[in-house]
Each structure stands twice: as C-alpha cells, then as structure tokens.
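#onboarding

Welcome to the new folks! Below is a worked example of what a typical request in this channel looks like: someone posts a single protein sequence, and someone else replies with the predicted structure as tokens. Don't worry about understanding the tokens yet, we'll cover that in week two.

Example request:
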Amino acid sequence: MNMDDYKRVTDRIYPSDRCREEVMNMKNAHNRRKIKHRPIGRIIAVVSAAALAACGGTVAAASKLGAFDKLTDKRDRTITYDNGYTGPLDKYDRNEYDKIAPHAAKFEEVSHAENDCFSVDLDSAYYDGLEMILGFTGEMASGNEEGLNQLGFTATLEINGEQIHPKSYDGQNLMTDWWGTFVIDEGENNSFTGSMTCILPCEARFDDTAEVKVTLTSIWSNEISTYDYDTDTPHSYYIMEGHDDGRLELSENVTADTSLVRKINKTAEKDGFYFTVYSISPAMMLCRGGYPESYDIAMNEEIMNGTEDGKAHYVHPLMFVFDEDGNYIEGLPMNPIDMPDGEWASASVSTDSKTLTIKVGDKNCQSNENGSVEFDDQYGHQSFGYITEFTLDLTE
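Example response:
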C-alpha cells in the first residue's frame, strides 16, 4: 500500500489527538525527578438525573455493576473547569458502551494487581474476533486528595505469551504500548472504572480462547500539571511510572464471539467517490472511503471557479456519514485497521440503520458552486461546502 492509498483511508478518520497530546506530555525519568507539582484548578463532575436513574439511583447499586455497565453513561457525563468550560468527561473515548456492555463477558475470577501507587482489577472483556475492549476497576493507593476525575494509562498487551503492538499503515510498530483511560465512578471519590480498546493486527486475531496479559506501565492525569523549571515546560501529573514504581500485571482467558460481527461488504460510489462498509458489530462499523485520483492535483479548476473570491486552493475531500434519520455517525479516533486482503479500513460507531447517506465536503473551503451546507457537531467542526452525496443500502 502506498502513501496515496493511505491518505485516502485516513481522510475518513479523525486525527488521534489523544496519542499526539500524550506523546507531547511524555518526559524521561531523569527530568521528571526535578519536576514540582502545580495544580491547574479544581474540576467538578456534572451528572445527569437520567444517568443516576439508570444506575438505580444509589452508589451501592452502581458499585455492583461490571466495568462495562458502569461505563454506559460515560459519553453523557461532563466536567466543568474553574474557567467555566464544560466538556465531555473523556472526549477521546467515543465507544457506545450501552451497545457493547450486553456482549461483554464478566470474569468469574477477577485478576487483581496492586502496588504503592494503584490497585486495579481486570473486570471484563468484549472481543468479537477483531476488536478487543478490556474493562477495569481501580483506585489510587494513597487516595484521591486532588479530586481527579479522569486518568490516562499505557499498557503492554500479550496474547498467548506473544507481545502485540499497535500497527501503523505500513505494518510497522507505532509504539510498544496501548492506551486507555479511567473515569471516576459517580458519587465516588477514589473508585475508578476504565477501558482499553485494542484493534488487533491480523496475525494476533483469534476465534477461540486465548490467554490475554495486560501490564499497566504508567498512569497519569492531565487535570494536574507538573512543571519542569529547568526547561520551562508543563507535563502531565504521573500517578505511576512503571520504570520507577513497578508495573501492574493482569491476566485472563478471553473467548472470541465472532457471531457479534455482521458481514456487509457493500460499496456505493458516485463521480469517483466511494464508500465501503465491511462489517458492523456492537462496537463499531468497519468502513473505508475514497476519492478520485484527480483530487490529488493541487489546483482543481472546477472547485476554484466556484469560489467567491475566484482564488485557487488545495482540495481536501472529507466524508461525513449519516443514518436513515439524518443523524451523523461519528468516526472513532483510531489508527487505520489492516484487513486480511491487504486493504486498510477505518471505524465509525455502530449503527442499525438500513441505509447510509455519504456527504463529501471540501475541508479547505466553506462554499462552492453547489452552495454551502452548514454542519456543526458536538466537537466543534466547522461548516463545509458539500461536493457531492450518495446513498449506500445496507439491507441484505
């Protein structure tokens, strides 16, 4: 697969800001020993009445639920900062756990690990033969005096004794560790529920039962900033650094349920644009979008002549997908997914819609000769001028 093919796949994918943000926050152990702590402000959790009702209205009832059950309202929860900004509790996790939780297996004997920094259980798992989502519960060993609401963590993954790495478009390792998050349980001070989503590379996928070992290598928070006065650089506040504080090893047998995946393998196209849906599971819609090679040309005369100022610009097609009721189907922020036939795909949230409408916009312009169509989602994306649109029928 060449770079042009990769670019066409990633035009359907939202950038993985979490990976970029956390890599920028990383610092080596030597420098972190010189860091002084400086809080950036208190954060308040906002919980909806509907979410409380769904959990039975009491903390005691919620505490008996498995990790995936407790995460079902995660997307609806928000945090409000001292500066007045309110946003998602975990803006990088767009999993729809209400669809995933009924198909997750809760382990009878929960794997447990703890050290001087953190205590964690591997509570349950969802695995459909491609996507593995692991559910955790945990707490900080010294308590949560800072009132933290969200924690990030990195972990290594082994399947049947072989270490598995995330993959990039060219099949090379992106890095050693996978990524996950914990969020504070509603009404609790030091009880966290977390998850880690892993799209397994082709060679690591299994359709039976395998031993899965997860080793948490670091845990941090962006709600409190640390500061290196030697370099005048802020960093995330680390709760656990594996090389200094020890690592947390957890192991369970995970069984695949490939019946969760509905094969689609349908494509719709128009004017050289195409959109393919490979499959739909409770966790995601596996898809791929592409555009004509002519859009790799720097100047596109047709689009240029349709702009109000008549000036040329680079054309960057971007696809938006809507269900049969006109609801926008979000893309999942993950790296391209390698397919057994050598192709690469992207992922969106799951849908049970019978048809999809694909609208192609130009990322670099607000309007064109087809007019300007307003599009504003919860993540603040700008309006786009749509180039074309077409429909994909998902019925058998």
